[in-house]
Amino acid sequence: MITSDIIKDAQSFLMNTYSRQPLVLVKGRGTTVYDSDGREYLDFVAGVAVNNLGHCHPRVVVALQKQAQRLMHVSNHFHIEAQVALGKELVRNSFADKAFFCNSGTEAIEAAIKLSRRYSREIIKKDRFEVITMFGSFHGRTYGAVSATAQEKFHQGFEPMVPGFRYVPFNDSKAVEAAVTDKTCAILVEPVQGEGGVKVPAPGYLKALRKICDEHQLLLVLDEIQTGMGRTGRLFAYEHEGITPDIMALAKGLGSGMPVGALLATDKASQAFAPGTHGSTFGGNPLACAAGLASLEALLEDNIIIQNVEALGKHFMDGLRSLKAKYPFIKDVRGQGLLIGMELDFEGKEIVTECLKQGFLINCTVNTVLRFMPPLIISKEEIDQLIDALDGIFQKR
Ligand SMILES: *Cc1c(COP(=O)(O)O)cnc(C)c1O
Questions:
Q1: Domains in the chain, CATH or no CATH each
Q2: 239 burial type by CB count under 10 A (0-12 exposed, 13-18 middle, 19+ buried)
Q3: Which tens digit of pLDDT belongs to each residue from 70-98?
Q4: CB within 8 Å of 332: residues ≥ 6 apart
Q5: Pick the catalytic residue: 100, 101, 138, 236?
Q6: Local structure of residue 311 (DSSP, 8 states)
Q7: Cα angle at 208 between 136 and 91, to 5 degrees?
Q8: 167-177 pLDDT, tens digit each
Q9: Nearest ligand 1 atom to alpha carbon 106
Q10: Interval between CA 28 and ligand 1 midpoint (Å)
């Protein structure tokens, strides 16, 4: 089918939930994707922080092929080897003692909210249900997760929201402290706000939240759906702060593109779930977990990948800051590892389009923040190519 027909059919047959670029991506290898007309693009979006190992990593491809030939799906009423193996590997490499698997980020957040409420009632024996979340956050689109998301634009037209969330400013632990009531059961926060414009909190913020949780018997729930799996230069972003959460939500980079989400938790928090309290037909599916396991193994065995992220991120931000010195309309450059934002004083849409024309996929969030989240295997040379292209585009403004 020719490209223009695919795009026309998309408008005819798909719901209008995304404003899509007018191209069809058909192939990816490493840091590069190809469209249906054979043009290639350097990918600084990575499926929104999903393709951390690059596109079609051979280890993940082989694991999927093998698993697809053996067993694609069975019910969670039986043991699933790949699910157990992925759970074990995640537990061995994190603060957590137990894992629960689902199919997306928003589902991991739903599970986190449910576990938090039940933990208070079943384990602490207090009837508490409120979760404190932060303005500018993004936790997903299902009702619990979107209610946790403290951004008006995601609620509009869908009200009423699920009750039991209190919103406070991000990067303000005093505001969190002041919002704790006798109904609070958990604090839910992203270590770096991704969709909210790549906002990095001051050092010590997560530590202060940890302390508040300990003082009030609350659960600290980290949404590492975007920051996890090496994105910030550690396997998980909480490692930067020297604290551990009680619960963590993962998805995006976990399966290298296979839909898989996970809820990780301490033994103490996990006790609140018992057979029949929560579940998912597809959650922990053999194919999804085979991809997850191969991805995690690749990331850990080739540990140079995560080790390089900090230096690559610094190189990237240095390049962007040199542009900021040249162009006064660039308001800020910030980020952690390879999750980087550049704030403009105008809408970034046209810059995204210009980059596309020149063979670079980039993203824009909250209208004015260009967001860069390339595969972690990106090279300095590839980063420099984008910086040069941006320089040319900005010069013409
Ligand atoms: C993407 C994202 C989600 C939602 O994940 P889905 O898989 O799209 O449901 C939740 N939280 C954060 C921080 C995210 O980046």
A1: 58-301 (3.40.640.10), 308-372 (3.90.1150.10)
A2: middle
A3: 999 999 999 999 999 999 999 999 999 99
A4: 324, 341, 342, 343
A5: 138
A6: H
A7: 85
A8: 999 999 999 99
A9: 9
A10: 22
